[in-house]
Structures are given as C-alpha cells and as structure tokens.
Amino acid sequence: MNSRRATRAAALALLCLLPQLLTVASAASKTSARHGAYHGWRAAQFLSNGRVEVIIVPEIGRVMQFRFAGEEDGPFWENRALDGKPPDARTNTWINFGGDKAWPAPQADWAKVTPRAWPPPAAFDSMPAAGLDLESSPDGATAILRSAVDTHYGIRVVRRIALEPGQPAMTIATTFEKVLGEPVKVAVWVVTQLKDPQAAFLPIPKDSINATGYTVVSKSAPPSLRIDRGLISVKRDATTSFKIGNDAQSLLWVGDKQALHIDTRRAALGDYVHQGNSAEIYTNPDALPYVELETLGPAVTVRAGDSLTQTNTYTLTRRTSATPDAEARKILGR
After folding, report:
1. What are the phi and psi torsion angles at 212 (to 5°)?
2. Residue 130 Ramachandran class (φ > 0 left, ψ -120 to 50 alpha, else beta)
C-alpha cells in the first residue's frame, strides 16, 4: 500500500510540474538573437533556437552560415580569404564571399538592365545591407535584412529569416520590392553556396516538363551525372564548371557528416525564365571548391509599388546512411 501511495504521489507531482516543464521547453525552442563579430565582420547577427543557428552579416548583405547550435562547422561555403573585407560595388570583378544571397533572374537580362553582364547587379550582391531589424513573435526573433535599392532595377531585396521552433530548420522569405523606375520583368533567384559535397541531388518530378528529367545550362552535362529511380546526382568536378536544372521543388546537399535539404514552391502556372527551371545545381572547379543549390520563382513584370516573394526552407540533418545515395533516398522519400 505504501508503495502504491508513493507511486501515486510521484505521478501527481509530475502532473503538477508538467505545465512548468512545457513552459521551459517552449522557451528553450524560441529563437533568441545576439549581436557579435564573425570572421572579421563586427556587426553580425546570430539567431538560435537551441537546435540550429544562422549567422547574418549585414556588412556584406548575406546569410553566411547555417549550422547546428554550439558547433563551428556548417554546410555553407565561405571564402575565408575575404574574412572581414567590405564589398565593392565599383569593381567589375566578382567579390565571391560565399553564403546565401538573392539575384534577379534571368541572368541574360543583366546586360540589358545594367551596364554590365557580370558581376551581379550591385545592390543584390556587392553592397552592404541598408538595414537589419529584429521582429518579435511568440516563436521568438525574426531577422529582416534589407538591401539598398538597386539603381538600375529599382528594386530593394527584403529577406525575412526565421528558425522553426525546436526544429533544425530555417525559412527565408525573399521579397523583391519595386521602389522606382520603369517596369521590369524579374524573378527571385536564390543562390546558396555550399561546401564540396559527397554528392548533390535533384529529384525529377513525376510530371516533369523535361523529357530527360533535366536541362543542361552549361556547355555540357557534368561527367558525374547519374539518374537512378527518379533521382539525379552530381559531384563537383575539379577542372570544369557545370550546371543543370529542372522543374523540381527540392534540392539536396550531402556532405561527410551532414545533409542540407532546400525546399521551395513551384507555381502551377508561371514563367520560369531559366529554361523552365525552378531548381538548379552549379558546381565550381578548383581553386574554390564549392557548389551552388539555386531556386527560382516565376518571372513577373513589376511596377513601382509592386512586390514578389519566393520562400525557401532549409533543413539541416546529420548523416545516418552509409552512402550519399541512401541518405538522399531517405530524406527525399525516393
């Protein structure tokens, strides 16, 4: 009898503590924010939900890293030779910092809208952010990164960066706000530079618009390209750059110990101006060993006062499968 009473008393005590335990767990999963230095830049913003952390560097207008909380290593590629250096909008050479950023698509229009075909338009890539704000919600802090208004496109890029409560996931809603100038047809193009992977993957949609399941954007297809049961895989080539794409809504990077899954949304109807692609993989040769997972929204003609938004979700996981293919099938359900 005494044993039963003790058990009931312990259970009752636990029930009484449960609301407090749930409150503590909820508080721990909320996104907290702090300022600090990062690789030579003094005004970085760190967001953490206890599972993962994102690092935003307004001095170069980028999301520079997304990693597990308390760890130094993350999947985003960073050009450490440029630590702490400022961008330069006047140069005709691309200052390739790495990280995650947004460009206007199609790339073929850059020379028509701006005085140059390369590097990317200045306010999208080679200028400090015009501002970084924090917005509070029941889930914690959201960072809002605002670019300068690009002189030629008349567009400001606004990126809302948030972590999913208690999950190893981040969402970035990228909005192009047309502020001034003549109407322009443009699409949101998000470019995420990642470290050299074991493999990068692109699923083939069941109702793909591509007869082969993909388009070749570079001069030729990557020699490493493989298709197996609806899943395309590529590896980085050390000597030549390659690029492919298709109409998928997902991309996957698989590294030695981690995997990063990027999800976006493809509109049922829309003008996808990179050969119909909503998802693309670019691989860079040595001496900068990185790949890019890129997502694109539909192109829209915007006038002053208009805006368009494309949202990506980034989910970071630890490798549990022996091969990158097995890891990809587990994550993508293929």
Report:
1. -90, -10
2. alpha
Provide the pairing of β-strand 140-146 with 131-137. antiparallel
pLDDT in tens, 234-245: 999 999 999 999
Q: Which helix (H) or strand (E) holds 262?
A: strand 258-263
List pLDDT tens digits, range 97-143: 999 999 999 999 999 999 999 999 999 999 999 999 999 999 999 99
End-to-end CA distance of the chain: give it in Å, rounded: 55
Spatial distance between the Cα atoms of 96 and 292, rounded to a whole number of angstroms: 12
> What span, in angstroms and rounded, lies between the C-alpha atoms of 40 and 21?
40
Q: Identify the burial level of 234 via C-beta atoms within 10 angstroms of its C-beta, where 0-12 means exposed, 13-18 middle and 19 or more buried.
A: buried
Task: Kindly state the tokens that stand for 229.
Answer: 């049961």
Q: Which of 163, 201, 198, 196 is nearest to 316 (CA)?
A: 163
- 263 bridge partner residues: 250, 313
The model's pTM: 0.92
Cβ(201)–Cβ(233) under 8 Å?
yes
Q: By three-state DSSP, how is residue 158 classified?
A: strand
- Name residue 302's beta-bridge partners: 184
Which of 110, 65, 105, 67 shows the shortest CA–CA distance to 92?
Answer: 110
E strands, 27-88, are 32-38, 41-48, 52-57, 62-68
Joined together, the tokens standing for residue 228 give 């197996």
CB 307 within 8 A of CB 194: no
Q: How many CB atoms lie within 10 A of CB 312?
A: 22
Domain 31-332 fold: Beta-galactosidase; Chain A, domain 5 (2.70.98)
Cα torsion for 190, 192, 197, 199, to the nearest 10°? -10
- For the beta carbon of residue 82, count every other beta carbon within 10 angstroms: 16
Please give the single-letter amino acid code of residue 287: A
